[in-house]
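Backbone-to-sequence.
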């Protein structure tokens, strides 16, 4: 079994060498930043945990030896254009909401209009309508409602949460979040406004881009990078430090790569949604 997994990992890295090369460059950049920011210990811990999560997910994958068909994509280019347009609208809405006006400086009417647009394009209700109602995809064909390998998330949650608790307990966000929002607020914040919409968009974007450019690995890294950079307006809104917000966005990229990889590997967003939705450990907040 060990030899089979070793060979399979070598083949996997060889097939996706571009993405793993870019990931290695990212790791070096984060280590350098971590050293200059006096956060090297947390940076190394975070990157090590992400590598262990990847290896653990592969061990689970090869232990069960599942066989997944490739994504069924009816019109790759047209669908990719739609996802890109929706992503650009979502980014524009975030910039408008957090950078240009600020959520506390708008009238009730603008607030309502903006909320509707954010539900349509950030949640993203529009993409669900387009792919499920217009393009007639079945939920499992776009990674939804496939719970067969939900359990993949459990050891990864335990690993990330356990290391966070043991190494940086002061930065755990669980207590403050539960005290501030309660269990219902935690579910809304973790799953409904973050994990589910972000993983739906990521999965649709990543699968279509990979098909169009004929490179799953480049699509995986590119879409994860776009996802990370989309957080800059939110990170910079409170402090006004957009250089620091950019560095913080790069810091969350490794965990985004993990979620994108799980989506592609298991042909389902469920494992990544479960990990993403409970992601209040703060291990990725290295800067």
């Amino acid at each position: 079994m060990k030899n089979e997994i070793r060979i399979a990992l070598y083949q996997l890295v060889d097939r996706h060498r571009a993405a793993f090369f870019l990931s290695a460059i990212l790791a070096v950049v984060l280590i350098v930043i971590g050293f200059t920011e006096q956060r090297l210990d947390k940076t190394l811990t975070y990157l090590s945990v992400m590598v262990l999560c990847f290896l653990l997910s592969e061990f689970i994958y090869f232990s069960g030896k599942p066989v997944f068909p490739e994504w069924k994509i009816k019109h790759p280019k047209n669908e990719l254009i739609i996802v890109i347009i929706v992503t650009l609208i979502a980014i524009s809405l975030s910039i408008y909401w957090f950078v240009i006006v600020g959520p506390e400086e708008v009238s009730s009417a603008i607030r309502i209009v903006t909320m509707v647009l954010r539900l349509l394009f950030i949640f993203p209700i529009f993409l669900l309508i387009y792919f499920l109602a217009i393009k007639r995809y079945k939920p499992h064909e776009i990674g939804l409602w496939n719970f067969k390998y939900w359990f993949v998330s459990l050891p990864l949650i335990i690993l990330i949460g356990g290391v966070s608790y043991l190494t940086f307990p002061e930065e755990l966000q669980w207590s403050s979040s539960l005290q501030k929002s309660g269990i219902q607020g935690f579910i809304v914040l973790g799953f409904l406004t973050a994990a589910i919409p972000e993983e739906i968009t990521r999965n649709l974007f990543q699968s279509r881009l990979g098909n169009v450019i004929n490179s799953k690995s480049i699509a995986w890294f590119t879409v994860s990078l776009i996802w990370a950079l989309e957080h800059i307006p939110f990170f910079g809104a409170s402090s006004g430090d957009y250089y620091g917000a950019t560095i913080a966005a790069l810091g969350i990229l490794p965990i985004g790569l993990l979620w994108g990889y799980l989506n592609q590997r298991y042909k389902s967003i469920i494992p990544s949604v479960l990990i993403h939705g409970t992601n209040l450990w703060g291990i990725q907040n290295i800067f």
